[in-house]
Design goal:
The protein contains one helix and four strands; from the N terminus they run E-E-E-E-H. By secondary structure, it is an alpha+beta fold. A four-stranded antiparallel beta sheet has the order 1-2-3-4, covered by helices on one side. Strand 1 and strand 2 form a beta hairpin.
Length: 75
C-alpha cells in the first residue's frame, strides 16, 4: 500500500504508517536489502539506504515526493 506516486525498478514502497515507508528490494543486483524513510514534518529520515548509490538515490527521490517534506536534507 503506497500513497506516493513513485515507480522504481529497484524497490517498491510499502506504507507502514502515516509518513513511514518501507522500500522493499525488487532487484537484488542493485538494492541488496531493504530500506525506508520516515517523514517527520520539517525533516525526513532515510534509513539503511541500500548497498548502491543508484538505489539510495532512488529512495531519496521517493522521500522527496512525500507531501510537506522539507526542501533541505540534513546530513
Amino acid at each position: 500500500m503506497s500513497d506516493l506516486d513513485f515507480q522504481s525498478p529497484v524497490f517498491r514502497l510499502e506504507r507502514v504508517a502515516e509518513g513511514v515507508y518501507a522500500a522493499i528490494s525488487a532487484d537484488e543486483d542493485w538494492a541488496l536489502g531493504n530500506a525506508g524513510f520516515v517523514a517527520l514534518g520539517a525533516r525526513t529520515v532515510v534509513f539503511d539506504p541500500f548497498a548502491s548509490p543508484r538505489a539510495a538515490e532512488a529512495l531519496r527521490r521517493a522521500a522527496d515526493q512525500y507531501p510537506g517534506r522539507a526542501a533541505e536534507w540534513a546530513v
